[in-house]
Design goal:
- By secondary structure, the protein is of the alpha/beta class.
- The chain folds into two domains: about 1-125, Rossmann fold; about 130-235, LytTr DNA-binding domain (OB fold (Dihydrolipoamide Acetyltransferase, E2P)), CATH 2.40.50.1020.
- It has helices at about 10-25, 40-45, 65-75, 90-95, 110-125, 170-175, 220-235; strands at about 1-5, 30-35, 55, 80-85, 100-105, 130-135, 135-140, 150, 155-160, 165-170, 185-190, 190-195, 200, 205-210, 215.
- Strands 2-1-3-4-5 form a five-stranded parallel sheet, sandwiched between helices. Strands 10-9-8-12-11 form a five-stranded antiparallel sheet.
- The mean pLDDT is about 90.
């Protein structure tokens, strides 16, 4: 895996680097670790390089860690984020961005180990995929790449950040493929949304991180919003999602 550490304190970078190396050695994990003291340098690299996990300080020189995290999630929603900071005041904002953890400086190795264990559990979901017939060929789609699924003119439409996969089948035949994944919520008739891609809700719509809007059943709005709130609560408190 590839990890980025972004912090304007060289001392804090050195300690975190040491902790991560220790974790990788103890857990037999190969990792490439890159460090940045400038958030702008990191964002420049992030546009062309792939990172599985990013450690972000909240207080940086030009852009806050929250601003950097928003850009990370926009460019690669699958990238996991762990905040490391000296203040509790941004914790709620951090978890609204689906941050994996929020480490308060000075933190112990045991706390870092717990955060990386959570990452390992989350990363296991990335290997899951569904397979659909698209035209004459079978197409594999990573479950974590699915933003939402809807149905139009007898075709299932699977929306990902890069494309839409269309497959001729009924929604009833398709929906069991995602029934085992807790991040999917049936929000409207023949429409399931991946809650990892939801930014917020407004009136009778979910608003996704890319700005798209998905309708919510008016008659079931309270139950749907409650299901989403429960999902976020479990995410923040380390529940199984």
């Amino acid at each position: 895996m590839t990890i980025a550490i972004i912090d304007d304190s060289s001392k804090d970078i050195s300690l975190l680097y040491e902790y991560i190396c220790r974790y990788c050695n103890e857990h037999k994990i190969h990792a490439t670790i890159k460090t940045f003291t400038s958030e702008r340098d990191f964002l420049g690299a992030f546009k062309t390089e792939k990172y599985d996990l990013v450690f972000l300080d909240i207080f940086m020189q030009d852009l806050s860690g929250i601003q950097v995290a928003k850009e990370v999630k926009r460019l690669n929603p699958r990238c996991q984020i762990i905040f490391s900071t000296s203040s509790k005041e941004h914790a709620v904002k951090a978890f609204r961005l689906h941050a994996l953890d929020y480490l308060l400086k000075p933190y112990t190795y045991a706390q870092l180990e717990d955060a990386l264990n959570c990452f390992e559990s989350a990363a296991a979901r990335f290997s899951h995929y569904i397979e659909l017939k698209e035209g004459r060929f079978m197409t594999r789609i990573l479950v974590t790449d699915i933003m939402y699924v809807d149905y139009y003119n007898h075709y299932i439409q699977v929306h990902t950040p890069s494309k839409v996969v269309r497959s001729y089948m009924s929604f009833g035949d398709f929906s069991p493929m995602l029934s085992g994944y807790g991040q999917f919520l049936w929000c409207y008739r023949n429409c399931m949304v991946n809650m990892d891609y939801v930014d917020t809700w407004e009136d009778n719509d979910f608003i996704l991180k890319n700005g798209e809007r998905l309708p919510i059943f008016k008659s079931q709005k309270r139950e749907i919003i409650q299901a989403y709130a429960n999902y976020i609560f479990d995410y923040i408190n380390g529940g199984t999602i």
